[in-house]
Write a structure and sequence with these properties.
about 750 residues, alpha+beta, 16-stranded antiparallel barrel, 15 helices
Length: about 750
């Protein structure tokens, strides 16, 4: 009888033991981790994350605001503290927190005009001026978040992450907070850290979302509402009090006014915490992302020295008594299969045009890196302010790796006016304007009118059209008009150099049409037909020396060229190379010479010279080699060969060190611009650029040139050998690049060059 009772009890224990286990799990207290905002200071949250990992304490819920929402999101989807620390240390914050696009990611046909303006004025479709909604649109940071959160692609419910997660933003439209518990994680992170006036708000449905710190910078109560019994708060937010000395700028004052409600809320939230951690960051501020490594180190040191750590050790021992629950693991996703591509937000461009620029094909398999290249390609068109994307699982396909892509787009305004100022000690002061209208007549087209207002004015007008399935074929029609008031020189040969004999006014006009094939962002092959008109008027003694009052030429030229340019910056580049090859066939130009009678200084009838057809080949190659973080070696060569005497407009004009690029002008240090006019030349340069501090450069310049100039009288080519060396100090200022340099040539002549501001 006793044996039967024992067997009955044993059977009951076996049957009911799962219920007891579940009861223990139900009684297990839930831990909530709360990470405050704080800009760069929020990187210090790595301190509490490291502590939790080392103590094997896994939170059941995470809430965060601003930078806390970013750190918390990565932790919630399975990144360890060490992995997050590595991400922070490898991040290029200057790039991530800006909208700047490296020059090597800009389409070749738009490289020249990129990053050349002091002021930009945007115009909407009705040509009404339009101001930006923030200093930074946040293209790079949105792209960065999307790349980091690929493992959560297709998971719209944040409760299904490895750790359930919530973050906070504030809606400018309703004036209410918005809690992200579902949707796209990258958008949630970007919305929560949209500091007003610094980052543009995020438009989501009917809302306009900004930094959650405007409402609540330390969301403790929200973790409690998720179900947390034990609340661990990590705080890196703003000080409750400020001082006169700290409020010294418009930005700081605006920032302070946006956090009033948050200041009042901090104390209430802090009192709810069971464990509260603050960090000694040695005076580092919200803007100090460049010191991210230091902030991370200070965060870990502060945590290791905190008395809270001892309390967390006790918590770890307490929680270890409870059985482990089944964990959700989100695998890292290397690639996806593209089921469909759609766009949202386009008003001027077509879906087909934008998708063609992405280079992504439906049905293809792409990685995170492929998506980054696609975004770079689309942004490199300079047609968009911002492009973000979301990935959603294809519910029709049986393949778990099949996803639909939706690109969310903010287009650039239809019209822009860019203004810049420039001073060149040879060409004088100038004001440049660039008027741009997009989508005039054709989808994706661009119309430019660039004007340089100075004593040496220039005007460039062009209309660009893009054709083909991937819009790689470019058709352009245009007009160039340039005037140069320059000194007139007479070449005395290698032993004596050149002699200034007066001055001349050159006027050059070119009507052209070209077809270009853009292989990719940095390579293009083109063919150009141009009808050219040029004229020279001699004065100040040059007319007496030449016995000419002027000359005029008319003719056309057909030019086949190839261009590669992957330099990383418009000014003071440090790496990449630029290659230009041209084969030009010139038609028989007609040259009209207006001679003068020296005795009575009267003009005599024009004489006409019929120039022969000529072939002209030119190669220019510059290779930049970055050596460490400071030095950039910059060798370059140039070779131009003409089969016969060329027209004035197509001869090579050499001399000077100017950033103002004019028709056929080639820089040679140790001389003034337009010092040499040659049909054939060969040159080699070797420059060494040193970065002293950010945006300040010293460049050592050397140049060797051989010139062959056709002599009408002797019917022969005259050779001139030339060597120059110099030193240039450059600074990339808000006004544009500033260059001041000194150079000397092999004839003992010295020359100063000064360039200030953005060149035309």
């Amino acid at each position: 009888m006793k044996l039967n009772i024992f067997k009955l009890w044993l059977f009951a224990i076996i049957i009911l033991s799962p219920l007891f286990s579940n009861s223990q799990n139900i009684d297990k207290p839930k831990i909530g981790l709360v990470l405050s905002g704080g800009g760069a200071k929020g990187i210090a949250h790595i301190g509490i994350l490291h502590a939790l990992d080392s103590l094997n304490i896994k939170p059941d819920y995470i809430t965060g605001t601003s930078m806390g929402s970013i750190m918390g999101a990565l932790y919630a989807i399975g990144y360890s503290a060490n992995e997050i620390d590595s991400i922070i240390r490898e991040a290029n914050w200057d790039y991530i927190l800006s909208d700047d696009i490296p020059l090597n990611e800009i389409e070749t046909n738009k490289k020249h005009s990129y990053d050349r303006s002091l002021l930009d004025f945007n115009f909407s479709g009705n040509l009404i001026p339009k101001l930006p909604s923030g200093i930074v649109y946040g293209q790079h940071i949105s792209e960065y978040f999307s790349k980091l959160t690929w493992r959560s692609a297709g998971i719209n419910n944040f409760n299904k992450f490895e750790i359930p997660y919530k973050c906070i933003s504030a809606d400018l439209i309703s004036g209410k907070p918005w809690f992200f518990e579902s949707g796209d994680l990258a958008i949630a992170m970007r919305s929560s850290m949209s500091i007003p006036t610094v980052f543009s708000p995020v438009k989501l449905d009917t809302m306009l979302l900004v930094d959650g710190g405007v409402y609540r910078n330390f969301p403790v109560i929200d973790a409690k509402e998720m179900g947390a019994d034990i609340l661990i708060g990590s705080y890196t937010g703003f000080e409750q009090k400020s001082s006169f000395e700290e409020l010294t700028s418009l930005t700081k004052i605006l920032m302070r006014t946006t956090i009033f409600s948050g200041i009042q809320d901090i104390k209430t939230q802090q009192e709810m915490c069971d464990y509260f951690i603050e960090y000694d960051l040695h005076g580092l501020q919200t803007k100090d992302f460049k010191r991210g490594n230091d902030i991370s180190d200070y965060g870990k040191i502060s945590m290791s020295n905190s008395s809270v750590l001892d309390s967390l050790v006790l918590l770890s021992k307490k929680m270890s008594k409870y059985p482990n629950t089944e964990e959700i693991i989100l695998p890292e996703r290397d690639s996806i299969i593209v089921s469909s591509i759609n766009t949202h937000g386009l008003t001027m461009l077509s879906n087909e045009y934008m998708i063609s620029k992405s280079g992504i094909e439906i049905g293809s398999k792409i990685s995170k890196e492929d998506m980054t290249l696609a975004l770079n390609s689309m942004m490199g068109t300079l047609l968009f302010e911002k492009i973000t994307y979301t990935l959603s699982k294809d519910k029709i396909s049986e393949d778990k790796d099949s996803f639909n892509i939706v690109f969310d787009v903010i287009e650039k305004p239809r019209g822009q006016m860019m203004v810049s100022v420039n001073y060149d000690n040879f060409f004088g002061p100038s004001l440049s304007t660039n008027f741009l209208i997009r989508n005039l007549l054709l989808d994706g087209s661009e119309s430019h009118l660039r004007l340089n207002w100075s004593e040496n004015p220039m005007a460039h007008l062009n209309y660009d059209m893009f054709m083909g399935k991937k819009k790689r074929i470019q058709a352009t029609i245009g007009l160039k008009y340039e005037v140069s008031n320059i000194k007139s020189y007479f070449d005395l040969g290698s032993d004596f150099g050149s002699l200034n004999i007066g001055s001349q006014r050159n006027t050059q006009s070119e009507f052209y049409a070209k077809i270009v094939y853009n292989f990719n962002i940095n390579n293009q092959l083109g063919i150009k037909y141009a009808y050219q008109i040029s004229s020279i008027s001699y004065k100040d003694g040059a007319d007496i020396a030449t016995e000419l009052s002027g000359a005029n030429e008319y003719g056309s030229a057909l030019n086949l060229y190839y261009l590669h340019n992957n330099l990383n910056r418009q000014f003071y580049p440090t790496k990449g190379y630029k290659l230009y090859f041209s084969a030009k066939l010139g038609s028989p130009f007609k040259r009209y010479l207006s001679t003068i009678n020296i005795d009575d200084n009267n003009s005599v009838p024009d004489s006409i010279i019929n120039l022969t057809e000529y072939l002209q080949l030119e190669l220019r190659y510059k290779h930049l080699i970055k050596v460490g973080d400071i030095v950039s070696l910059q060798p370059s060569i140039g070779i131009g060969i003409s089969s016969d005497e060329t027209s004035i407009m197509n001869s090579f004009i050499l001399g000077g060190y100017s950033r103002l690029e004019r028709i056929n002008n080639i820089n040679i240090i140790g001389s003034e611009p337009y010092s040499y006019n040659s049909d054939t030349y060969a040159m080699a340069n070797f420059d060494i650029q040193f970065k002293v501090i950010d945006n300040l450069f010293i460049t050592l310049l050397t140049n060797t040139t051989i010139l062959l100039t056709y002599d009408d009288i002797g019917d022969e080519f005259i050779e001139t050998d030339y060597f120059g060396t110099g030193l240039s100090l450059g600074y990339y200022s808000p006004l544009g690049p500033i260059d001041i340099g000194y150079s000397i040539n092999s004839y003992g002549e010295n020359y100063w060059h000064v360039n200030i501001g953005f060149p035309f």
